[in-house]
Give the backbone structure.
Amino acid sequence: MTPWQNRFAAGAVALMWAYEGLWCKIWPGRADQRAIVESVPLLPGWAVTPLLLAIGAAELALGLWVLTGRRARLAALVQTALVVGFNTGGLLFGSDEIPEPGRLIVQDLAFLALIWTVAATRHHPAPRAAVTA
């Protein structure tokens, strides 16, 4: 992958996180996202809005992290955990709000493939210390 292609791919990943965080959770927020969070067992009603705002802020921060290129594999691992965790929770608790679960899973697999492609091409292991005699 060329540097330009990598920047474009990283930008696409960051844009996805920005869209999910800002548009879907913070402003204006999507009703289906709110309904999924409201469906979480034992979550008090007063906690829904603060939780959506916190998730949205975390998603925005994750997008910025991807753009920095720092600790790319750790970023990919965190992203994978969040994608799997959020969508597993959504499918378990808010499945009535997800019109096509199969499409969600296929899109997640494509997104995860892009995340790991970006991480693999941005990962630069630290050089080994020179051994002096």
